[in-house]
Specification:
This protein has 126 residues and is an alpha+beta fold. The chain has one domain: Peptide methionine sulfoxide reductase (Metal Binding Protein, Guanine Nucleotide Exchange Factor, Chain A, Beta Complex). It has 2 helices and 9 strands. It has helices at residues 2-8, 11-19; strands at residues 37-41, 47-50, 54-55, 63-64, 73-78, 85-90, 96-101, 112-115, 120-124. The strands form 2 sheets. A 6-stranded antiparallel beta sheet has the order 3-4-8-7-6-5. It starts with a helix and ends with a strand.
């Protein structure tokens, strides 16, 4: 399957989704996106985040306070880089999407799903 991912994904997408990399902050195509629609997994197309839950976190990555459907992401402990974080993965293909933090909007869920743009595709709402 590794070869399949390498042909389907760009090198940056492969690095993030399959090797748990991170794109540089403020470089992703969806950081400043404000259109209405659904953000899906760039690898498998699973619906992940609605534009209705996107907010300006000023972190350098697209941020959401809730997932589109609870079963579409998996949360895992990540103790890499000498710290504890919560990794966010696509439940369908296991692709690494980003991390979950507890500094999101307090009037919503208080959560911030900090997601790599290159791990996402956007389907504009008609």
């Amino acid at each position: 399957m590794q070869d399949d991912w390498k042909t389907k994904l760009t090198p940056e997408q492969y690095h993030v989704l399959r090797e748990k990399g991170t794109e540089a902050p403020f470089t992703g195509k969806y950081v400043d996106m404000h259109d209405n629609g659904m953000y899906t997994c760039a690898a498998c197309g699973t619906p992940l985040f609605s534009s209705d839950t996107k907010f300006e976190s000023h972190s350098g990555w697209p941020s959401f306070y809730e997932v589109a459907e609870k079963g579409n992401v998996v949360l895992k402990d990540d103790n890499s880089l000498g710290m504890h974080r919560v990794e966010v993965e696509c439940a369908k293909c296991g692709g690494h999407l980003g991390h979950l933090f507890d500094d999101g909007p307090s009037d919503k869920t208080g959560k911030r799903f900090c997601i790599n743009s290159c791990a996402l595709e956007f389907k504009k709402k008609d």
